[in-house]
Structures are given as structure tokens and as C-alpha cells.
Amino acid sequence: MHTLSQLEGNFVDVDGRYVIVVGRFNHHVVDSLVEGAVDSLVRHGVDADGIDIVHVPGAWELPLAVKRVLQVVRPEAVIALGAVIRGGTPHFEYVAGGCNTALGNLQLEFDTPVANGVLTVNSIEQAIERAGTKAGNKGAEAAMAAMEMVSLLRGFGDDTPSEGEST
């Protein structure tokens, strides 16, 4: 009989470099998401010097900046933060859908966690609720997801030699 084993991440083995990529549009909401993400990372043992923040105009620009961060910086994880608030036109669906799909694809392409903390809400009130009031702080939640995934992936080990290591 086969015994089923389990593997899950924790919040202990999470040190390393994290990059938070932030859309400035709706900054009055997004700034609170950034504060929540940084606070969660530091509270769980990530050195503040290992946290970088990259600003882009809005959610639509997040995927390109995240891709460049993954290519150049090669962090343990990226945390994408932004806020897309529904308006009276279909623009919301295009921006939110395109951003979310691209972030998910980048995570798979680079085999690196990309935590999605991009709010997609119907009103400014909902955005404020998710940025640290009634519904918690979605930036902090994205940072927690990033750390858990870093730990989980480390649990698989790495069969590839590090730079300078012989095979």
C-alpha cells in the first residue's frame, strides 16, 4: 500500500530577496497594500534590505515590470500590487483580465512565485475595505502567499548546481 506524503510551505524558511511591483494608479489605496506587504515580510523574518519596491503607472504595466524583475533580479518571489476599480466602460475587464492572466503566465514561465495582490473591485469603498479596514489587507495576504510558496518550493529541493558548483 502506498503511503501518501504531504508537503506544504511555512513561514520560517522564507529569507531572501522579494520585489514588490506596485501600480501607482489609485495610490491612495495601493500605498496601504504596500505597507501591509512590507510589514508581513519583515514580521516573518525577511530582512528589510532584501525587499525592493518598483513603481509602475498602473495595473496594465505590472506584467512587463514583473517580467523584467524576474529576468534581471531573479528574486525568491514577486508581489504585484495595484487597484483596478470598475467604471462605466469595459476598460475594467480588459485591464484586470489582461493583468491577471499575464501575471499567472509569468509565474509559470519563470518558475518563481508571483503573488497577485491586484484588487479588482466595483467601488472605491470596496478597495478601501481590502486595503486594511473591514476585509483585511490584501497586500499583506499577497506577501503571505509569496512567502508560503517560497518555502513550499524550497521543500522540493533543487537538483541544479549553483553557480560555481561542479556537477
From TrEMBL:
InterPro entries: LS (IPR034964), LS/RS (IPR002180), LS/RS_sf (IPR036467)
Keyword set, alphabetical order: Riboflavin biosynthesis, Transferase
Chain sites annotated for binding 5-amino-6-(D-ribitylamino)uracil: 25, 59-61, 83-85, 116
Pfam families per record: DMRL_synthase
One annotated Gene Ontology cellular component of this protein: cytosol
Binding-site residues, (2S)-2-hydroxy-3-oxobutyl phosphate: 88-89, 130
Quaternary assembly: Forms an icosahedral capsid composed of 60 subunits, arranged as a dodecamer of pentamers.
NCBIfam families, sorted: lumazine-synth (TIGR00114), PRK00061.1-4 (NF000812)
Name of the molecule in the record: 6,7-dimethyl-8-ribityllumazine synthase
Record organism: Billgrantia gudaonensis
Name of the gene: ribH
